Automatic annotation (TrEMBL):
Keyword Zinc recorded: yes
Keywords linked to the UniProt accession: Metal-binding, Zinc, Zinc-finger
Annotated RING-type domain residues: 132-174
Keyword Zinc: yes
Protein source organism: Cottoperca gobio
Domain CHY-type: residue ranges: 1-67
A single GO cellular-component term on record: nucleus
Name under which the protein is recorded: RING finger and CHY zinc finger domain-containing protein 1-like
Entry's Gene Ontology molecular function annotations: ubiquitin protein ligase activity; zinc ion binding
Length: 303
């Protein structure tokens, strides 16, 4: 674990003296993996040179042999590492991977975002202080980059990639579509036009709410999905009873309601899915490449 090239996490030529237990570790992550408590990086005061073993005040160069402890050093986070264009963000309270000029700190979201998201993202107050809704691990201080969904919620980039790969196309928190789905809604339009419902279901309608635009409306019932009249999305959920045409009567309405409630094969938690069923999920799996092309990211921290 202790070596002149650091550890699996960082490239450095010193060990940190943990302020909590006094033990020497290459980094706080190595410490936390071995101990039953966490190291407070901000309270680190001393380091040991990996070359001459001199214990000294935390600084960038060894006071005894002058070895460079790290190309980058932050005297707030006590972070030593190779140069990755890091910078310390005071509002975030930690070091970020830069370069600084490619990022800005959003005051409402309270984290650093790529410059191309300035004025081009939905703000959610203190969003990075919430855990990733997929893995339930911390996002703000994670060394894994974060992905900004259209709804403004954050996921770890790796968790988002897993979602895309498995066809889970909705935000786990609010059910909003996780990327642009217009092409897939067009595909469902075509499939519905080629797949008329049996006579007893024709004219049946379902009350729905759209997970993308929050519109409440009544849509024609179809097993492949119910379309929002507000934005054209099939990412919808049942929002009330089902009505049938006079020819079908109450029995058809009951069957349609049961089918609508059971058509949530591709849905996640949060109500009986009406339109976000298996077809939409299959379309989402086919759109993985599109989802990746449209990724919006923050950068990981480095400390």
């Amino acid at each position: 674990m202790a070596s002149s090239v650091g550890c699996e996490h960082y490239v450095r030529s010193c060990l940190l003296k943990a302020p909590c237990c006094g033990k020497l570790y290459v980094c706080r992550l190595c410490h936390d993996a071995e101990e039953n408590h966490q190291m407070d990086r901000f309270k680190v005061q001393e380091v040991q040179c990996s070359e001459c073993q001199t214990v000294q005040q935390a600084q960038q160069n060894c006071q005894q042999c002058n070895v460079h402890f790290g190309e980058y050093y932050c005297d707030i986070c006590h972070l030593f590492d190779k140069d990755k264009k890091q910078y310390h963000c005071l509002p975030c309270g930690i070091c970020r991977i830069g370069p600084r000029e490619k990022y800005f700190h959003c005051k409402k979201c309270n984290l650093c975002l790529a410059q191309d998201l300035q004025g081009n993202h939905k703000c959610v107050e203190n969003v990075s202080r919430q855990n990733c809704p997929v893995c339930m691990e911390d996002i703000h201080t994670s060394r894994i980059g974060a992905h900004v969904l259209p709804c403004g919620h954050l996921l770890h980039k790796t968790c988002f990639d897993d979602m895309v790969r498995t066809g889970a196309y909705r935000c786990p928190l609010c059910m909003h579509s996780a990327w642009s789905m217009e092409d897939h809604w067009d595909q469902i339009d075509k499939e519905i036009s080629l797949s008329p419902m049996p006579t007893e279901y024709q004219g049946a309608t379902v009350k729905i709410i759209c997970n993308d635009c929050q519109t409440h409306c009544t849509a024609p019932f179809h097993v492949l999905g119910m379309k929002c009249s507000g934005c054209g999305s099939y990412n919808t959920a049942q929002d009330g009873g089902t009505h049938a045409a006079a020819a079908g009567g109450a029995a058809a309405a009951g069957r349609a309601a049961a089918a609508a409630a059971g058509g949530a094969a591709g849905g996640a938690a949060g109500g009986a899915a009406a339109g976000g069923g298996g077809t939409a999920a299959a379309a989402a799996r086919g759109g993985a490449a599109v989802g990746r092309r449209r990724q919006k990211q923050t950068q990981p921290h480095t400390g």
